[in-house]
């Protein structure tokens, strides 16, 4: 039985240039060799796949779909015991959820990355890779993330720190639907909400042809009267709007009304994400749109 190691770029595959800029130039074999040299990982016969070499901040939905396709291909290769995916941390939570929604693998798929470049004296990549390989060896089916000495289920994951080695946290999420439809032709925008915001950016997304919009709302999922009016315009155009929050933790409740709060947004047709934060809410909405889900199905999925 063989393990597959797929690299997509990110800090774990990056080194720092003389001008101080970091870029993902290492292939999967190089990352593995570095981990072996640091004593974190024993020499192993892995099938390596150099898929992408991108900062994960630059990944598109098409890129994430390509990662999902590559993982599915590796899982379908006879004798594969599991797959480790090396990924940048900026959008790791998004790709992890897409893999969960699309693949529901019977073998283990574990994503990991790093907060410090591969050439840093205190690089955390080798230890994270070792943890990911160990989890795959255990053989539990499903998609997980190994990072900073912890193991996370894919749904409910968020990046909580811009610099801590233990960069991720998670919220418990209920069962999400299996959504196998491809997302590479879907556009879902995230629109930030701030106190006093108008609907300029929401209207711009609608005009740009977005298939769905996620509001990064205030508090438990609130906005303004102007945004509520923009949500009505989206509803009339058949474009679903999901309300998440810039607040990193807690359950969202559409309770405030009279000035553009969550109750007003819900009355205008928006769907509140119970737990998912904007990044993962975008992925779930894109997968639902790609699957042709109706309003009731969208509401049920985000109630998990």
Sketch the major β-sheet: 6 strands, mixed
Q: Pick out the low-confidence regions.
A: none
By secondary-structure content and strand pairing, the structural class works out as alpha/beta
Beta strand %:
15-25%
Provide the CATH architecture of the largest domain.
3-Layer(aba) Sandwich
Strand order across the biggest sheet?
4-1-5-6-7-8
Mean pLDDT: 95
Helix content: 25-40%
Question: How many distinct folded domains?
Answer: 2
Name the CATH superfamily assignment of the largest domain. Answer: L-asparaginase, N-terminal domain
- CATH topology type of the largest domain: Rossmann fold
The span between the termini is: 36 Å
Figure out the total of helices: 9
Pattern of helices and strands: EEEHEHEHEHEEEEEHEHEHEHH
Active site: 11
Family: Belongs to the asparaginase 1 family.
Domain L-asparaginase N-terminal: 3-179
Protein name: asparaginase
Keyword list:
304 residues; EC 3.5.1.1; four-stranded parallel beta sheet; 14 strands; six-stranded mixed beta sheet; alpha/beta; Rossmann fold; 2 domains; asparaginase activity
Can you describe this structure?
This is asparaginase. Belongs to the asparaginase 1 family. One of its GO terms (molecular function) is asparaginase activity. Keywords: Hydrolase. This protein is α/β, with parallel strands linked by helices and 304 residues long. The protein has two domains: 2-170, Rossmann fold; 188-302, Rossmann fold (3-Layer(aba) Sandwich), CATH 3.40.50. Helices cover 32% and strands 23% of the residues. The protein is built from nine helices and 14 strands. It has helices at 28-37, 61-75, 92-103, 125-138, 200-207, 225-236, 262-267, 278-290, 295-302; strands at 2-9, 14-16, 22-24, 46-54, 80-86, 108-112, 142-147, 150-153, 157-159, 168-170, 188-192, 212-217, 241-245, 271-272. Helix 2 crosses helix 3. It is elongated. The model has no long low-confidence stretch (mean pLDDT 95).
């Amino acid at each position: 039985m063989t393990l597959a190691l797929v690299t997509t770029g990110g800090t774990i595959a990056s080194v720092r240039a003389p001008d101080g800029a970091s870029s993902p130039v290492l292939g999967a074999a190089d990352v593995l060799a570095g981990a072996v040299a640091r004593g974190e990982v024993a020499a192993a016969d892995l099938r390596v796949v150099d898929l992408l070499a991108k900062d994960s901040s630059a990944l598109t939905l098409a890129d994430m779909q390509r990662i999902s396709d590559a993982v599915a291909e590796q899982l379908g290769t006879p004798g594969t015991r599991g797959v480790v995916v090396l990924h940048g941390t900026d959008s790791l939570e998004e790709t992890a959820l897409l893999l969960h929604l699309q693949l529901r693998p019977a073998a283990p798929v574990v994503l990991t990355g790093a907060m410090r470049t591969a050439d840093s004296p205190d690089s955390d990549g080798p230890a994270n890779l070792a943890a990911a390989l160990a989890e795959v060896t255990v053989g539990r089916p499903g998609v997980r993330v190994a990072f900073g000495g912890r193991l996370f289920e894919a749904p409910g994951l968020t990046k909580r720190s811009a610099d801590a080695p233990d960069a991720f946290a998670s919220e418990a999420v209920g069962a999400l639907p299996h959504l196998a439809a491809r997302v590479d032709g879907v556009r879902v925008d995230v629109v930030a909400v701030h106190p006093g915001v108008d609907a300029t950016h929401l209207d711009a997304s609608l005009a740009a042809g977005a298939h769905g919009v996620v509001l990064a709302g205030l508090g438990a999922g609130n906005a303004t009267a102007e945004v509520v009016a923009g949500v009505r315009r989206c509803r009339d155009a058949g474009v679903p709007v999901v309300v998440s929050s810039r607040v990193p933790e807690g359950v969202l409740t559409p309770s405030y009304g009279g000035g553009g709060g969550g109750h007003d947004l819900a009355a205008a047709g928006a769907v509140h994400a119970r737990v998912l934060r904007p990044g993962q809410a975008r992925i779930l909405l894109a997968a639902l749109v790609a699957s042709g889900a109706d309003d009731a199905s969208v509401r049920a999925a985000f109630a998990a």
